[in-house]
Specification:
The structure is a single chain. The protein is an alpha/beta fold and 249 residues long. The chain has a single domain, classed as 3-Layer(aba) Sandwich (Rossmann fold). Helix content is 55%, strand content 10%. The strands form 2 sheets. It has a 5-stranded parallel sheet, with helices on both faces. A two-stranded antiparallel sheet has the order 3-4. The chain starts with a helix and ends in a 10-residue tail after the last helix. The structure holds adenosine-5'-triphosphate and magnesium ion.
Length: 249
């Protein structure tokens, strides 16, 4: 409920688009099925994501309207923890909305936000406004964290050879299946968890961080996620789910 209110506020301020509200509803549905908690495979993906961000030469966190409304402060804190740049990148881009999102991030403590006036480079294979990125940010990045991204763009970033870390509650979306590391968790839970892992992994050698990434298998994590959902639904089926504590009249 708190999340919905944040999005509605973002919508009224012109930070969130109507399509963003629909995407949130789709996310809520999957979160309900997961039990609104971080499941074990997501934790493994969050740890691998932290290792990838720490080892990256040019890590970037890509921010859209929903992410800015739900988790601006967490984006800023994570960026600081792993030394990543923050870039506004919008599916439905207008210059006004990009500037408003930068404003939200600056109010949350960001010192620099790319992707507004400097979004002069283009990502091949995407049409017009969706492909505009900053030459100092996503264009140059080796690792990009994309909370709530669209499938086409995830695929385009992968084709450019980038490591793409997606946060998406839908394990079946094209984004989830195309990403290098897929975190099936709510963005508001995922970002602080990645940050906690990053703090912990700072004590590791680069070799040990590399080992975490090398041992990480995204396909296996997605399968584990589907299995978790199946088992949860099976166990609810066996227990019964009727709200039999409600008065009958
Ligand atoms: P794709 O293009 O990847 O196949 P899609 O078209 O169904 O997916 P988009 O609108 O492009 O979806 O992306 C939004 C995605 O973000 C959805 O899959 C939705 O489940 C997910 N999502 C929405 N809100 C959240 C949230 N708070 N945390 C994590 N994921 C979320
Ligand atoms: Mg899509």
């Amino acid at each position: 409920m708190v999340l919905r209110e944040k999005l509605v506020k973002g919508f009224k301020e012109g930070v969130v688009v109507p399509e963003g509200l629909i995407a949130h509803g789709r996310g809520e549905c999957f979160d309900y099925i997961l039990g609104e908690e971080t499941i074990a495979p997501a934790l493994k993906a969050e740890k691998a994501a932290a290792a990838a961000l720490l080892l990256a030469r040019h890590p970037v966190i890509s921010v859209n309207g929903n992410t800015a409304s739900l988790a601006a402060e967490e984006v800023v804190k994570l960026a600081e923890e792993v030394g990543a740049k923050i870039e506004v990148n919008l599916f439905y881009r207008t210059e006004e909305r990009a500037a408003k999102i930068r404003e939200v991030l600056m109010r949350a403590g960001a010192k620099e936000v790319l992707g507004v006036e400097d979004a002069t480079a283009t990502i091949p294979e995407l049409e017009s406004e969706r492909r505009r990125v900053s030459p100092e940010g996503i264009l140059k990045a080796d690792v990009v964290l994309v909370p709530l991204e669209d499938g086409d763009r995830t695929e385009a970033l992968r084709r450019l050879g980038k490591t793409v870390i997606a946060v998406d509650l839908n394990p079946l979306s094209r984004t989830s299946r195309a990403a290098s590391i897929t975190i099936v968790d709510n963005v508001v839970r995922a970002l602080p968890k990645i940050r906690a892992f990053a703090r912990e992994l700072k004590g590791y050698t680069d070799k040990d961080k590399r080992k975490i990434i090398d041992e990480y298998d995204n396909e296996a994590i997605l399968k584990e996620t589907l299995r978790h959902i199946k088992e949860r639904l099976d166990s609810l089926t066996q227990q019964g789910i009727s709200l039999n504590l409600l008065p009958r009249n």
